[in-house]
Amino acid sequence: MVKKVQIGKTDLYVTPVGLGANAVGGQNMYPNITDETGKNVVKAAIENEMDFIDTAFSYGKGHSEELIGEVLKETGKRQDVVLATKGAHIYKGDQTIKTNDPKFLKETVDASLQRLQTDYIDLFYIHHPDEETPKDEAVGALKELKDEGKIRAIGVSNFSIEQLKEANKDGYVDVIQDHYNLLNREAEDELFPFALENNISFVPFFPFASGVLAGKYTKDTTFDDFRKDMPHLEGDAFVENLEKVDKLRNLANARETEVANLVLAWYLSQEVIDVVIPGAKRPEQVKNNLKTLDVQLSAEEKEEISQIFMKK
Questions:
Q1: Element (H, E) at 195
Q2: Which residues are part of the catalytic machinery?
Q3: Which of 19, 89, 256, 274 is the most buried (most CB within 10 A)?
Q4: Rounded-to-integer distance, Cα 85 and Cα 152, Å
Q5: How far apart are CA 133 and CA 148, in angstroms?
Q6: Which residue range is the domain that position 25 belongs to?
Q7: What confidence tens digit (pLDDT) does each residue in 131-188 have?
Q8: How far from each other are the two terminal CA atoms of the chain, in whole angstroms?
Q9: Residue 72 and residue 58: Cα distance in Å, rounded?
């Protein structure tokens, strides 16, 4: 039986390793994925007691939510899963508009409820900040939805420290999700301390830095999707990052575990992080990610990993 953790100050308790579902129905990000495989990934998560699923409207423009909703309906497992989703996007032709307008947020939550085939969302995030809306007003709209029982917890994503402070003016923010991994540790400077001080749980996205920290790439690896233009996967930076991962591999081999599990265990050793949400394109990746729960790092190992990826 896996010990569950509380997400910050919420009443949500989950297995510490969840599923980031951007490859479930997210053909706008991964053109080669199929609906069938996406649904099988969600089923594998549920079958293996991975009970935290993180999606968003922007993953396939609602399609990820639809596929997850179908699986939960087919399996009858809605009550066993903690669902997180996000909204802030309006798509008009080739144009993408981001808005935090309170009226829009309430409408987008209702639309997500329909796609997910549920009457409540456990954790709803404002996916991206806009330039116009006062952030405490946007969060205030979510607080009204929380009071109505449509959502159980409030999150924000991609917010700067200033935006997070404004959003949490009334103390309503439960979770912040932001870019953080061993190659990008900027969140440690300001977001982590503020989150800890205010009992806000931090959920890192891109935990594997688009795959390089999973230990599966070589210098000959090429990309044909959104990863192909990422600086840390190009040229000298890519080679340097692979060298760091090789040092990590030596430590993983000594522990008889995989690089990916070592990386996820390091994140979970951070006080501000309660749960991680690595993505998966195949059911076996779900099972491999769950092996992280068997990895307990010593203080020395945590420091060794930190030193390999020390911020410059």
A1: helix 191-197
A2: 59
A3: 19
A4: 12
A5: 22
A6: 5-308
A7: 999 999 999 999 999 999 999 999 999 999 999 999 999 999 999 999 999 999 999 9
A8: 41
A9: 20
d(CA 271, CA 276): 13
Q: Total domain count for the chain?
A: 1
Asked if 85 and 108 touch (Cβ cutoff 8 Å), the reply is no
**The domain spanning residue 223 has which CATH number?**
3.20.20.100
Question: Are the CB atoms for 129 and 98 separated by under 8 Å?
Answer: yes
* Mean local confidence (pLDDT), 121-125: 98
User: How long is the chain?
Assistant: 312
Kindly report the backbone phi and psi dihedral angles of residue 152, in degrees, each rounded to the nearest multiple of 5, phi listed first: -105, -20
Tokens 């409820």 belong to residue: 113
Q: Helix, strand or coil for residue 297?
A: coil
CA atoms within 13 A on the CB side of 278: 35
Q: What pTM did the predictor assign?
A: 0.95
The percent of residues above 70 in pLDDT, for the chain, comes to 99
Q: How far apart are CA 62 and CA 258, in angstroms?
A: 33
Average pLDDT in the 235-244 region?
A: 89
Residue 237 pLDDT: 87
Token pair belonging to 164: 């997070």
